[in-house]
């Protein structure tokens, strides 16, 4: 069984990277806010906002939940839609 990492050690290791990514994210959102026009009706901005709200919650499965926010719903006919043969090879069109 792998050794458990001390949470304080983990925070020490990850803190600067997390801080950097959060600053990058804040800067990107600032640029969007300063731009001309509106993206209020763009579903991508809603995905970003929902993801940020989810990240603020202390949950163990945040990465999975954020991925689901940005994922398309499963469609059973995806192979035909995207021209993929069941074996993984593209259909010849």
Protein model, in words:
By secondary structure, the chain is mostly helical. It has a domain at 7-70. It has helices spanning 7-34, 43-55, 62-70, 78-82. The longest helix is centred in the N-terminal third of the chain and has 28 residues, at 7-34. The protein is flat and about 55 Å long. The N and C termini lie far apart (51 Å). The mean pLDDT is 90.
Helix fraction by DSSP (H/I, runs of at least 4): 55-70%
CA-based gyration radius: 20 Å
Let me know the average pLDDT: 90
Tally the beta strands: 0
Largest sheet: none
Low-confidence stretches: none
So how many helices?
4
| Backbone structural class | mainly alpha
Tell me, briefly, the overall form: flat
The H/E string reads HHHH
Beta-strand percent range: under 5%
Distance between the termini: 51 Å
């Amino acid at each position: 069984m792998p050794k458990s990492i001390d949470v304080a050690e983990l925070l020490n290791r990850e803190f600067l990277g997390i801080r950097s990514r959060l600053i990058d994210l804040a800067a990107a959102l600032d640029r969007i806010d300063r731009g001309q026009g509106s993206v209020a009706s763009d579903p991508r901005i809603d995905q970003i906002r929902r993801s940020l709200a989810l990240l603020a919650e202390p949950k163990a499965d945040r990465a999975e939940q954020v991925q689901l926010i940005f994922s398309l719903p499963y469609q059973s006919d995806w192979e035909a839609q995207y021209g993929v043969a069941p074996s993984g090879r593209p259909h010849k069109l």
